[in-house]
Amino acid sequence: MRFETRYTYDFIKQFLPSECRRILEVGCGTGELAARLSEDGHAVVAIDSDPESIAAARSLGADAHVATWPDFDKGCFDAVLFTRSLHHIHPLDESIKHATNSLVEGGRVIVEDFAYESADEKTLRWFTSTLRLLETTGSLAVSGEVLKTILSKTATMKAWRENHESDLHTAAEIDAQLENVFGPVIREQAAYYFRYAASAISTTEKRDAILQAFAKQEEALSTQGSIVALGRRFVSERAR
Ligand SMILES: C[S@@+](CC[C@H](N)C(=O)[O-])C[C@H]1O[C@@H](n2cnc3c(N)ncnc32)[C@H](O)[C@@H]1O
């Protein structure tokens, strides 16, 4: 399992209900997480609106289907996961209400997402300099063009906003809707900037170690208040 999936997997496993058989993953992408959770013995149904992603997920053995949330109804699950997908899904209130209706009593919705609205100059400067450092050490296996593209979308506040403020939901909106529908919400901050570098780092044996160090740095610097972590995680439970 690649580091970026393991980072999500560890969080999900921590918050799955104790008796968790049926899991629905919404926006599964290429299905690495769904396949891994299936190997653990959970009955995982994975959906994504993108047919190519679903083909890739199936090739990993996931029970994956092309479907668009909230238009999907296949009974009730012990957990519904939105893994970096909820910020894309409209309408947000209906999507979260449908998640509640797709859960058994005591079932949980578990969300991994990001707060793009939280990015500030100082954090983006740290992010940019970390990418440049990786480039200098030869760890980024990308052409100058690819690196330029990543930086052109992330290096300045102006570029960041232009690239992130289209029709994406903010983490604050997701949080508010979850609270509105479920009541209590468990909230966590997490590392996320390393994900922008993940596709650009060479697949050497050091790849995961580099990404892990990147994530650890974001965790440490945000805990001490030097930067703002980008990742946001939410867990809510359907009342019994
Ligand atoms: C950023 S990707 C995350 C993929 C994967 N979960 C991961 O963490 O790598 C977001 C995924 O959500 C899917 N998606 C977006 N809107 C959707 C919707 N309404 N219903 C189902 N999937 C959706 C996209 O096709 C995409 O694969």
Secondary structure elements and pairings:
Layout lengths: L2 H13 L6 E5 L5 H8 L3 E6 L2 H9 L3 E4 L10 E7 L8 H10 L1 E12 L6 H16 L7 H11 L2 H8 L6 H12 L3 E5 L3 H5 L8 H17 L7 E7 L3
Helix pairs in contact: 1-2, 4-8
Number of helices: 10
Strand order of the largest sheet: 3-2-1-4-5-7-6
Strand content: 15-25%
The main β sheet shows up as: 7 strands, mixed
The secondary structure category is: alpha/beta
What's the gyration radius in Å?
A: 18 Å
> Would you give the CATH topology of the domain at 3-117 and 167-192 and 229-237?
Rossmann fold
What does this structure look like?
With 240 residues, the protein is an alpha/beta fold. It has a domain of 150 residues: Rossmann fold. Helix content is 45%, strand content 19%. The protein contains ten helices and seven strands. It has a seven-stranded mixed beta sheet, sandwiched between helices. Helix 3 links the parallel strand 2 and strand 3. It is globular and about 50 Å long. The two termini are 34 Å apart. Bound molecules: S-adenosylmethionine. S-adenosylmethionine binds next to strand 2.
